[in-house]
């Protein structure tokens, strides 16, 4: 039973566990991303995040404290150089654990990726694009009956075509009167009756 057991020993002795976590922390600092089991990733997060906090103050004391744990000059140089500048404004939470769907083939252990939050460029770019889109306000809005309304508009347009010419849906179509051969020409200023009376008198 695990009564009061706050530290996951990971099936190793204390010296072996510290050596393993030190090696994993150095790899995470140098490569910014690491694939491991979920249990190791959670133990590594507790181990490496205090070091990242110490790197914000570039003093001799901080460098010696971190070097006592890592024992690697290259990782110290990277930590106090590139990483400390990027995490300067972040108040903790420097790492992210992403669980993978597949498990390890040998013992079926849950696998995950542990990475530094500020160095995942793909995720940062996608979040920035989403923020820009939200700020621009160009969200797509749909309403019910959109397809039906489009169909009605198409039917109205096709119905208002006259003699091969497209007419606006709201326009009033004027039909020309049929030509009447028996219609007589009426002079200006005369009514139809007067015209007929003149013809009868003639």
UniProtKB/TrEMBL annotation:
| PROSITE patterns in the cross-refs | RIBOSOMAL_L17
GO cellular component terms, A-Z: ribosome
Q: Region Disordered: what ranges?
A: 130-202
Keywords attached to this Swiss-Prot or TrEMBL record, sorted alphabetically, are: Ribonucleoprotein, Ribosomal protein
Question: Which Gene3D superfamilies does the UniProt entry name for this protein?
Answer: Ribosomal protein L17
| Listed Low complexity bias regions | 130-139, 151-160
Pfam families xref list:
Ribosomal_L17 (PF01196)
Subunit field text: Part of the 50S ribosomal subunit. Contacts protein L32.
Entries under NCBIfam families matching the protein: L17
Q: Which family does it belong to?
A: Belongs to the bacterial ribosomal protein bL17 family.
The name of this protein is Large ribosomal subunit protein bL17
Annotated source species: Hymenobacter mellowenesis
Taxon lineage = Bacteria, Pseudomonadati, Bacteroidota, Cytophagia, Cytophagales
């Amino acid at each position: 039973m695990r009564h009061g057991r706050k530290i996951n020993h990971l099936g190793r002795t204390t010296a072996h566990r510290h050596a393993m976590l030190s090696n994993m922390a150095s790899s995470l600092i140098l490569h910014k991303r690491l694939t491991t089991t979920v249990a190791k990733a959670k133990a590594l997060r507790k181990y490496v995040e205090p070091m990242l906090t110490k790197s914000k103050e570039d003093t001799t004391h901080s460098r010696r404290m971190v070097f006592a744990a890592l024992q690697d000059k290259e990782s110290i140089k990277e930590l106090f150089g590139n990483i400390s500048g990027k995490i300067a404004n972040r108040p903790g939470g420097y790492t992210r654990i992403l669980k993978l769907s597949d498990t390890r083939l040998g013992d079926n252990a849950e696998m995950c990726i542990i990475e530094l939050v500020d160095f995942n460029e793909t995720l940062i770019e996608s979040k920035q694009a989403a923020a820009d889109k939200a700020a621009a306000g160009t969200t797509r809005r749909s309403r019910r009956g959109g397809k039906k309304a489009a169909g009605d508009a198409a039917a109205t347009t096709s119905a208002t075509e006259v003699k091969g010419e497209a007419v606006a849906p709201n326009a009033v179509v004027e039909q020309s009167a049929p030509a009447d051969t028996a219609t007589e020409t009426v002079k200006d200023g005369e009514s139809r009756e007067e015209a007929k009376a003149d013809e009868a008198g003639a």
